UniProtKB/TrEMBL annotation:
Keywords: Kinase, Transferase. Belongs to the fructosamine kinase family. InterPro entries: Fructo-/Ketosamine-3-kinase, Kinase-like_dom_sf. It comes from Pseudonocardia yunnanensis. The keyword Repeat does not apply. Pfam families: Fructosamin_kin. This is Fructosamine kinase family protein. One of its GO terms (molecular function) is kinase activity.
Amino acid sequence: MNVLGVVVRTSTPLGGGAVRAELADGRTVVVKNAEESSLAAEAAGLRWLRVPGGTSVPAVLDVDRQRLVTEFVPRGSPGAGAAAAFGRSLAHLHGSGAPAFGAAPPDGPSAAWIGRAPMRNEPSPSWPEWYAADRVLPYLRAASDAGELTGEEAAVIERVCDRLPALAGPAEPPARLHGDLWSGNVLWSPGGAWLIDPAAHGGHRETDLAMLALFGCPQLDTVLRAYDEAAPLAAGWRERVPLHQLFPLLVHVVLFGRGYAGQAVAAARAALRLG
């Protein structure tokens, strides 16, 4: 196999269709194979997230219809200093903004992906309306159609969508989101945190923070404290975490089955207690 016109000497699987490749010229890169639309969306997202002062993001070295080649990030450990720096840099990234809620990265397709699930990116002026229509309801329908949610469970989540304007908290401008910011997509290197595998779009910054909490980001309290110091969060943000976790939990129901249904319904019930 050749990458960037150079022979690959060795490759090591990393999961998710990606391999670490050692090139004959001495470079180490990550090569990912996936569907063309997925590769295009990821490449556009990585480029959009590389902002001065923001969290580090691997450079896109090459992308075509079959593979994406990116910079390799060496592994380190998440110390308190790195975690605080991550919180500050993530706040700066979010503050770089987006044209609208649901906006795709420049040159990114509207038909994007989150993991192996399709995701629609279309601009909207209203976060509550957009979050219901383009993030919660599509996955609720897919999970219900697949028999992974009962009618009673689906009704609880539908009530959240009906009441979203009252549950959403103070209005915020569109943030530049990673979009799939679970702990596995934060790589800790000797130089600090890096973001990989984005599902980037314009959204509410609390969604990225809620996803960090969903599966246990290391040093999370330190990350959030530094974030809040750099870009203070609106009152009640901790209580709104379940509301923002509802979307990724429904994606997990669609991708992995009913094992996540209880968590999704519990998040919906917690969100309904907001108002």
